[in-house]
Design a protein that fits this description.
Elements: H1 3-31, H2 39-53, H3 63-86, H4 103-114, H5 124-127, H6 130-160, H7 170-196, E1 205-209, E2 215-219, H8 223-232, H9 253-277, H10 281-308, H11 311-315, H12 333-346, H13 361-372, H14 383-403, E3 408-409, E4 412-413, H15 416-426, H16 428-442, H17 444-447, H18 454-469, H19 484-513, H20 530-564
Antiparallel strand pairs: 1-2, 3-4
Helix pairs in contact: 1-9, 1-12, 2-7, 3-4, 3-6, 3-19, 4-19, 6-7, 6-8, 6-14, 6-19, 7-8, 7-9, 8-9, 9-10, 9-12, 10-12, 10-13, 10-20, 12-13, 13-18, 13-20, 14-15, 14-20, 15-19, 16-18, 16-19, 18-19, 18-20
Length: 569
């Protein structure tokens, strides 16, 4: 590890934190129906959409109506995207002449982009035409991120209101998230990416002559525009198969910094939005502090592990001073590769600028564990905030048990109904990850997709189902997931991780919204202090440890000790 590497990491985090308050305050005003500086530009467009759709923006919904509207909207998005991929051969803007996507792969991809997972079992530049990339995948990048933001705002209102029966209007929240937040920032980001060297063209490819006189076909397309919302919406689905390791998708150190900054931007600002909307910004800073404390620890471990290099290669005569550079881009180096890996998995983004499969065992353990912690560090756009609030409910419940009081959070009593729903939501992750992984580890047809035997092969399976269930989308890269088994089961894992979690979360929101706020007393546990942050971090780590440590011990942990002993599989 070097001082320059740590300085780069600190600079990016500082840039993100500098934007938390202004962007968070803007979103608080936007979703509280206050006028913003963008109202003169997007207000007429917003009202036009409501008229066309027959939506009354003043009519709010209860939790069940809000959740049903979200499910119907996402189901329609799935059908549309699936249809576009199956009809690709007859659609315009397909200069490569790609045929229809296979049914199981189309199912997997449609679920993936609708659920904000963006897992890809295909090579983008060899499978999807420009029309499907733009009208299908990029559109869902916007809408799935807006859906996450809307759901988070519904839960925030549940804590902000007292004795309420409604949580807002899904159609209004989603429209405003898209028009006022995602779209304008994406336009600016796409221009910056195009200036940095990313292609933005409808041309399918260009032919180049190599140094030995051969012809090489280089894929092109509308990359910058898709890359912008891919990063900003924590989607992660790349235009190219190599994702952000591809020189057209991440051409320089500047574009790499912009990519990491934009991934963190909205997810880090939403806790401040939460604090403003509940009337106590300290609550938002406490959640953000818990998020970043674990994320920074993950960055440290990943950077340390990769900087040590591989002792097996060192024994063969490789100079260890450069760290473990296998699977990494020289233009980014160990520090920026480790930071990118931790951030993209602490978020639910899933884009990669290095191959996680080539990390050292402990370096690869970090992104795997950050996903398994619940994708709340700081998590996806919107999903990270509502996931962290669910953990906060567990934390105040534990604190209440310690002192023998009925737990409260922001003046709302946390009782048996809320805890049952909370545990139902939190148990979705281990049920899906461990259930599907155990089945895949026993099936010969599933094991045939592995590139590695032994503990690393188990890590590849665990990572795939962790990524799918956590709606992350990244992969170790050593697993051929483009098979009927993996396309189908990973698609089901994405649905469970997204919608199986959302439904109990929305039921929690409805229950909490209806409660009357109680005034704080001398016995109220404060939820804005370092003690609460430490307890929240402890609850997250202990729950993940109890759920996943046995599986991790058989995968990356045993592989680490095998590497030290000089043994390979």
């Amino acid at each position: 590890m070097t001082a320059i590497g740590w300085l780069q990491i600190a600079l990016i985090f500082a840039l993100v934190l500098a934007c938390v308050k202004p962007l968070g305050a803007f979103m608080a005003r936007l979703f509280s129906n206050e006028r913003t500086f963008l109202a003169p530009v997007f207000g007429p467009v917003e009202r036009g959409f409501y008229r066309l759709a027959g939506v009354d923006p003043t009519r709010e919904q209860g939790w069940l109506a809000y959740a049903l509207a979200m499910l119907v909207f996402n189901a329609a998005g799935f059908v549309l995207l699936y249809g576009l991929m199956r009809l690709q051969a007859v659609l315009p803007l397909n200069p490569q002449g790609f045929g229809p996507v296979a049914p199981d792969q189309a199912f997997n991809t449609a679920v993936s982009f609708v659920s904000n997972t963006n897992w890809q079992s295909y090579g983008g530049e060899t499978t999807m035409g420009h029309f499907v990339q733009m009208a299908g995948l990029t559109v869902q990048n916007f809408l799935s991120a807006a859906t996450g933001m809307a759901l988070a705002l519904a839960l925030v209102r549940a804590f902000a209101r007292s004795g309420a029966t409604t949580l807002g209007n899904f159609w209004v929240d989603m429209t405003r998230a898209t028009l006022y937040v995602l779209l304008p920032i994406s336009i600016l980001l796409a221009l910056a990416f195009a200036i940095s060297g990313m292609p933005q063209t409808l041309q399918g490819s260009v032919d180049a002559v190599t140094l030995d006189g051969a012809k090489q076909t280089i894929a092109l397309g509308p990359v910058a525009s898709q890359e912008a919302i891919k990063q900003l919406g924590t989607n992660g689905g790349g235009f190219f198969s190599a994702n952000a390791a591809h020189p057209f998708e991440n051409p320089s150190a500047i574009s790499n910094v912009l990519s990491i900054w934009s991934m963190l931007l909205i997810a880090a600002a939403l806790p401040y939005t939460f604090g403003r909307m509940v009337g106590d910004t300290r609550q938002g800073w406490a959640l953000l502090g818990a998020m970043f404390s674990i994320l920074i620890a993950g960055v440290f471990v990943a950077y340390w592990a990769e900087a040590q290099g591989n002792p097996i290669l060192t024994a063969l005569g490789l100079d260890p001073s450069g760290g473990n550079m296998e699977g990494k881009e020289v233009r980014f180096g160990v520090a920026m590769s480790a930071l990118y890996a931790a951030v993209t998995t602490g978020l639910s983004c899933g884009c990669v600028n290095a191959m996680h499969d080539s990390f050292t065992p402990l370096g690869g353990l970090v992104p795997l564990l950050l996903i398994q912690l619940g994708e709340v560090l700081p998590g996806g756009v919107g999903s990270g905030l509502y996931g962290m609030l669910v953990f906060a409910i567990v934390t105040v419940f534990v604190a209440g048990l310690m002192v023998g009081r009925t737990p409260e959070y922001l003046g709302k009593k946390i009782e048996a109904r809320e805890m049952k729903l909370t545990m139902l939501a939190l148990l979705i992750l281990p049920l899906s990850i461990l259930g599907f992984s155990s089945a895949a580890a026993m099936l010969p047809s599933a094991l045939a997709s592995l590139a590695n035997a032994g503990p690393h092969g188990l890590s590849e399976i665990l990572y795939a189902y962790s990524s799918a269930t956590g709606n992350n989308g990244s992969a170790f890269g050593g697993l051929n997931a483009n098979t009927p088994w993996y396309n189908t089961t990973l698609g089901l894992a994405m649905l469970l991780g997204r919608f199986g979690y959302i439904i109990p979360m929305m039921a929690i929101a409805g229950s909490i919204a209806g409660k009357t706020k109680v005034a704080a007393s001398a016995g109220t546990f404060p939820t804005h202090t370092p003690l609460f942050v430490a307890l929240l971090v402890g609850v997250i780590l202990i729950m993940a440890g109890l759920e996943f440590f046995p599986a991790l011990a058989l995968g990356p942990i045993v592989e680490h000790f095998s590497m030290i002993a000089g043994k390979t599989f």
